[in-house]
Amino acid sequence: FLEELKAKHVTASDLSSTAHQVHVQRPARDLRRVIDLVAKYVAQMGEQFEEALRHSLRDQRREVKDELVFLKADPDSAEAQYYRWRVFSFAQGDTRQKWRSEPFQMCT
To answer: Tens digits of per-residue pLDDT, 63-107?
Structure first.
């Protein structure tokens, strides 16, 4: 089993040189707290929870929509990239204070 895990381990040099690389940037602290909270719940509850949030945004006040803009933002925006990374990170068992820093490949 351990040998199988080692064989699947990806290092930075293993990543395709033609792959699109993204360097995730942390948003401002207040927005980061909101994104982290939503990402944690989405990682735990799945895509259906995320879709329910997106659907409920249509009926919310402007202030709420502004707080959750990363759910509807351009996928290449810094906020959306941070959000997708946090969902992936939480799904991998990382925490708000501690996460993996080695390069990885994520299919979206």
So the answer is: 666 677 777 778 888 898 899 989 989 998 988 888 777 766 666
- Residue 87, exposed/middle/buried by CB under 10 A (0-12, 13-18, 19+)? buried
Task: Specify the DSSP element, H or E, that contains 49.
Answer: helix 47-57
> What CA–CA distance (Å, rounded) separates 34 from 30?
7
| Residue 39 · residue 83 · CB < 8 Å | yes
**Nearest-angstrom CA–CA distance, 26 and 89:** 14
Rounded to two decimals, the pTM is 0.72
78's tokens: 């810094």
Domains observed in the chain: 26-96 (1.10.10.790)
Own/partner pairs, 12-20, CB within 8 angstroms, 24+ separation: 12/102, 12/103, 15/103, 15/105, 16/105, 19/105
